[in-house]
Sequence to fold (253 residues):
Amino acid sequence: MLKVIDVLKYNGINTNNARDYRLILQSIIKNKKIQDLEYTLSQNEEREFINLKSRIDNDEPIEYILNTAYFRNYTFYVDNNVLIPRKETETIVPYLSSYKSVLDLGCGSGAVGITLKKEYNNINVTMSDISPEAIKIARRNSKNIDIQIIKSDLVSNINISEFDCIFANLPYIDIDKKDEVVKSVYSYEPHIALFAKSKGLFLINKLIQELNRKRFKGCLFLELDPWQIRYISKNKEIIKDQFGQNRFIKIEY
Ligand SMILES: C[S@@+](CC[C@H](N)C(=O)[O-])C[C@H]1O[C@@H](n2cnc3c(N)ncnc32)[C@H](O)[C@@H]1O
Fold:
């Protein structure tokens, strides 16, 4: 029979995974606190700990194990059908706040669109994604929030004249460099959310062209990798993320 203190002792306070072990332990013992060092785990709890620990040791992100991700102080349900929202993406939210009607294209979990609506309730927010599984999760996360969700390949199914702003965090990792991607990302996050052809710019360039063709009137904000920016031929403004990296571009149509 293991006590909390034993679990903490045997699972190395100083190892890289110590924080994640503590998080799974807390999630398993639910109402008890892990500060309650003398609490004795039930057999089920012990078994569950061994199971979740092995997932962490196998590099599975804690967000998928606990089905929880945080984005600008809000909590989102995530599983391996959606990208885990990234810290750097949080920066863009205030930049979208001065528009009346915003499309979050490639919404995944819905982190950007939902946060925008929560922080600026007067904005009309629509979210879209090509993945039916992502749409399901975005719906779940936006329950009781006034947001429209559309399944669409880029803007093929969207009336863009309804929007004065589009934000798109499309997959932008170069598919030819997929071998360089760390295991926790490559083996667990959905490839439809990660990879694109043509130096990772295939979907981004396609979207830029489609908006030209459809005579979009408004602002397009795109997230990409800093080195990709020079390959975007349109006039653009560069926006840094909170870590000082050139992470977004703004294109006026
Ligand atoms: C990098 S993830 C971004 C998810 C979310 N916006 C975020 O920032 O956490 C890219 C998203 O684009 C979606 N996607 C991929 N190809 C697409 C396409 N052709 N049209 C619309 N969405 C697409 C993926 O399903 C995925 O949810």
About this structure: The CA atoms of residues 63 and 69 lie 5 Å apart. The longest strand covers residues 246-252. The chain has two domains: 4-58, 66-252.
